Amino acid sequence: MELRFSEKEEKLRQEVRSFLQQNGRSEGGQLGSRTDAEFEFAKEFNRKLAERGWIAPAWPKEYGGLGASIYEQMVFNEEFGYFGAPDTGTRGFGVGMIGPTLIIHGNEEQKKRYLPRITSGEDIWCQGYSEPGAGSDLAALQTRAVRDGDDYVINGQKIWTSGGHRANQMFCLVRTDPEAPKHRGISFMLIDDIMNTPGLTIRPLINMANRHHFNEVFFEDVRVPAKNMVGEENRGWYVGMTLLDFERSGIGTTASQKHTLEKLVTNLKEGDKARRERYRTRLADLVVANNVGRFLGYRIGYIQASGMVPNYEASVVKIYQSELGQKIYNFGVNQLGLSGQFVPEEPRAPFGGDMPESYIQAVPSSIYSGSNEIQRNVIATRGLGLPRG
Ligand SMILES: Cc1cc2nc3c(=O)[nH]c(=O)nc-3n(C[C@H](O)[C@H](O)[C@H](O)COP(=O)(O)OP(=O)(O)OC[C@H]3O[C@@H](n4cnc5c(N)ncnc54)[C@H](O)[C@@H]3O)c2cc1C
Fold first, then answer.
1. What residue numbers bound the domain in which 379 lies?
2. Which residue intervals of the chain are DSSP H helices?
3. C-alpha of residue 227 to centroid of ligand 1, in Å
4. Nearest C-alpha to atom 17 of ligand 1 is from which residue?
5. CATH classification of the domain holding 262
6. When comparing pLDDT for 212 and 156, which is higher?
């Protein structure tokens, strides 16, 4: 077995890498950018990607992609992850979630309307799934949509809407039949121009890193054209679940963790002997674990390249990468000593304050995209064939 990328893919990697060295930043600027300036930088960065057809390289050319192979897409994901390429929500929610869902479940009009606006970087999407009473048990959602002429009228509330304050588009799940069994009364809706939609209010939620990353969204008689429904009325659960399969297949995380480990190696080389002795074997263990994570990620790529949809395998990767990230950033903060606790705003912070920021941001990684307990349930039932309960 020979596990390596082809010459063509390695050539592409060099091209992407040199583009990122010139145009991306290696720190910060991720989704939910800390400052408005970082968000503007991410928008400009996506505009440059769009010029090259690099926002969604694996999509068909007619929708603004390059028709690239899954392995080429993996090269992009690895390089973007390694360099911490900034995003606005266009690539994460647009390319990673709603785009592939529309390619499968959307009608021609929806594909023609929305996909090119993702690959141009124009639309910034957010996800309206969770509600105060519906997280892991998502099908318990109560936000109600009632048909009225050519529109649906929506009332209710969403919560934890990442990047909702900077998005212009939202995809969401709403209840269209309250009498039906809970999974069968849900529909999938697209809401345009959310900042200017009457009755739709977005309120900030400040996270424990003191950042405005997510929001609460309130709907009061919000009118959405019926043509914005994806798939059939009351069949939205299946559309929504397709989207989650995509949400859970990401592979850039391992590359980002690799970059952090490399920085910690450099730091340890520069430090004194006592520190080296204290941290070297633990650092080596994390490097081993990171390599395991990389190959788990490649397996997802292989499954996709073989025309299959990763299922419990993606849950394995999600658990592994999120829990490893928590260990790496915890270790990193410790290794850097007291200065490792400096936040990005402090000019003396090592690595631009990336370590404590990443440490805090790694905490929710075992909750979002479906908590790790839920992923373990998926592995137990779908992967191992164990009965529920
Ligand atoms: C940083 C962040 C960003 C997010 N962004 C978004 C977003 O953009 N859009 C969006 O819609 N949502 C978003 N979410 C919400 C996220 O999807 C939910 O937090 C998640 O699904 C868990 O739901 P919950 O918070 O209601 O917890 P609960 O479902 O109430 O779970 C509480 C605890 O119970 C455990 N648990 C629940 N059910 C089971 C079970 N059957 N078996 C074993 N354990 C169980 C859970 O694992 C968890 O530990 C985000 C969350 C975070 C933290």
1. 248-383
2. 7-23, 36-52, 70-83, 99-105, 108-119, 236-247, 253-270, 273-305, 312-335, 354-362, 372-378
3. 30
4. 368
5. 1.20.140.10
6. 156
Query: What pLDDT digit, counting tens, does each position of 36-51 carry?
Result: 888 899 999 999 999 9
Atom number in ligand 1 closest to CA 377:
42
* pLDDT for position 29: 41
Q: For ligand 1, pick from 174, 368, 375, 386 the residue to mutate: most ligand atoms within 8 Å of CB.
A: 368
Q: Tell me, yes or no, whether 109 lies in a domain.
A: no
> In this prediction, what percent of the chain has a pLDDT beyond 90?
69
The mean predicted confidence, pLDDT, of the chain is 91
Q: Is residue 270 part of a domain?
A: yes
- Which CATH number covers residue 37? 1.10.540.10
Of 236, 266, 287, the domain-final residue: 236
Measured by CA distance, the residue closest to atom 25 of ligand 1 is 135
Q: For the range 295-301, what are the long-range contacts, defined as Cβ-Cβ under 8 Å and sequence gap of 24 or more?
A: 295/3, 296/320, 296/321, 297/74, 297/251, 297/253, 297/254, 297/321, 298/3, 298/74, 298/251, 300/249, 300/251, 301/70, 301/71, 301/73, 301/74, 301/251
Show which residues are catalytic. Answer: 247
The 10s digit of each residue's pLDDT in 54-104 is 999 988 898 989 999 988 988 999 999 999 898 888 888 999 889 989 998
CA atoms of 154 and 27, how far apart (whole Å): 39
Distance between CA 196 and CA 181 in Å, rounded?
A: 34
Evaluate if residue 366 carries a pLDDT over 70.
yes
How large is the C-alpha radius of gyration of the chain? 21
Residue 249 pLDDT > 80: no
Q: At 143, which CATH number?
A: 2.40.110.10
The residue nearest atom 23 of ligand 1, judged by CA position, is: 135
- Picking from 219, 160, 176, 173, the residue whose alpha carbon sits closest to that of residue 194 is 219
> In Å, what is the CA distance from 169 to each residue of 122, 189, 195?
10, 11, 8
The number of distinct structural domains making up the chain is: 3
Residues 255 and 369 grouped into a single domain:
yes
Q: Are residues 271 and 338 located together in one domain of the fold?
A: yes
Same domain, 146 and 231: yes
Ligand 1 pocket: which of 87, 97, 160 to mutate (most atoms within 8 A of CB): 160
Same domain, 62 and 160: no
Is residue 98 one of the residues assigned to a domain? Answer: no
Ligand 1 centre to CA of 130 (Å) is: 8
